[in-house]
Write a structure and sequence with these properties.
The structure is a single chain. This protein is an all-alpha fold. It has a domain at 23-65. The chain has three helices and no strands. It has helices at residues 9-12, 22-49, 51-65.
Amino acid sequence: MAQTLHRPLSEAAPRPAGTGRPSERLMILAAVATVGALLAAGVLLWLRHGATVFFDMLNAGIASCL
């Protein structure tokens, strides 16, 4: 006879926000910090050099693909 594969309702319900394991929260915090640092670096480069840096990077990337 086949067994049914179901979980009790208490295990199937999603957890409320902020109740994850500390390692999950640490990984999310690290990802947010990394994205924030990259965004800040991009804004600082834009303020210092204007569009020149970004267009030079685009041209160098396209040239390396050809």
